[in-house]
Amino acid sequence: MRVMMPNGNVISVKRAITVCEERTPFNGRVERRCECAKDIIYANGIAFVPVAETLDVCDMTAGGTVFFGNLTNEFVREVLASLVEKGYFDLSGLKLQKTQLVVSHYVFDNGASEAYLLQGYEANASCARVPGYPFMGMGTVNETEDTEDVEDAGEEDCTDE
Fold first, then answer.
1. C-alpha triplet 5, 63, 37: angle, nearest 5°
2. If DSSP states are collapsed to H, E and C, what string results for 108-136?
3. What are φ and ψ of residue 72, in 5° steps?
4. What is the pTM assigned to this prediction?
5. pLDDT at 86 over 70
6. Distance from the first to the final alpha carbon of the chain
7. In this structure, are residues 71 and 95 in contact, taking their beta carbons and an 8 Å threshold?
8. Contacts of 128 by beta carbon, 8 Å cutoff, 6+ apart
9. Which residue from 73, 143, 147, 155 has the highest number of Cβ atoms inside 10 Å of its Cβ?
């Protein structure tokens, strides 16, 4: 499968993963949860795992993984349908939010505003429970350090292969 990125680059992907992201207020802060969608009806993000041409230390840590968040469910379905039917999707017209230093600073409103993009290590660490990432236990799924989340990260695999 191939995907044309918003910058015009074309990447080959071996896997597209639907993602469910949620942000909820809790105890004076906003918790961010992100994991693979158990059902397409919950998907509001998508991660692309690229085809690795060579495997080295940089591939293991950065990985080239690309995550698009703050998407509508309809858009996620459109991307997947195109990948299945045509083998490609063009994201060159997708408007993105300005790059933020911290994932929690991106606007998240289920696609009412622009999407956001995370790449490489940032995508891997911020979506620690999405299967297919090299370091799934390395980060927590929210903005706090929960020992239970770190211990449990990556144990759940909800993809059907």
1. 70
2. CCCCCCCEEEEEHHHHHHHCCECCCCCCC
3. -80, 155
4. 0.73
5. yes
6. 16
7. no
8. 34, 135, 136, 137, 138, 139, 140, 141, 149, 153, 154
9. 73
Other beta carbons less than 10 A from residue 46's beta carbon: 24
Distance, CA of 158 to CA of 77 (rounded, Å): 18
Q: Hey, what amino acid is at 45?
A: G
Alpha carbons 10 and 86: distance in angstroms, whole number: 15
- Residues contacting 24, CB < 8 A, separation 6+: 30, 31, 33
Tokens of 46: 């998508």
pLDDT digits (tens, 9 = 90+) for 102-153: 888 899 999 999 999 998 777 766 665 544 443 333 333 333 433 343 334 3
